[in-house]
Structures are given as structure tokens and as C-alpha cells.
Description:
4-stranded antiparallel β-sheet, 3 helices, globular, zinc ion binding, zinc-finger, zinc, SWIM-type domain-containing protein
Amino acid sequence: MGDVRARAAVTDQTRPTGLEARTRRALDETMDVSLLAKGGRYEVRSQSGNVYDVDVVATTCTCPDWQHRKPDGGCKHLRRVDYEIKHGCVPRPDGRLPT
Length: 99
């Protein structure tokens, strides 16, 4: 499950209907995402001001939701990083800029 490309993409066409609650929050809430290190480590500053480390390769996050529940599909932070990678908003896990 470590390959970002293998996880289901959330597209603008799928946003309005049928989104799981965490995915909806991942896309609707204000979050700042930045690459911390090559290999898939990102920092996510949430709307609440909390900062979490997300590893898209290991599929982990330091947020309480991930630490206590490990939801299928990941927490909202992991989902947001996936979305931003797939839409070219942040560098890919290998550190390369989107083409």
C-alpha cells in the first residue's frame, strides 16, 4: 500500500457526491502541505494549527486519528497529501516537481 499512485484518486468530479467523511474533510479543510524529505515524508499544518508528519510510503500519520484508529484509506491528512501529490500541488515522494 506504499505506492501513492496505487491508492484511489479523489478527483474534482468525485468531490460533490458520495465522499467518505474523512475524504470530504481532507478536501474541504484548510491545510498546508510541504515535502519534509525525499522518500515520502510530508508535513501537514491543519486548519486547527496542529502540525503532523505524514509518510505516504509507510502510510502513517502522527495525528490522533491515525494513531488510535488507523482508518481504512488513511486519515484526512494522508488523504490530503495523496490528493495534492496527484494534482501536482506538491513534489512527489521522490522529491521531483510535478511535470
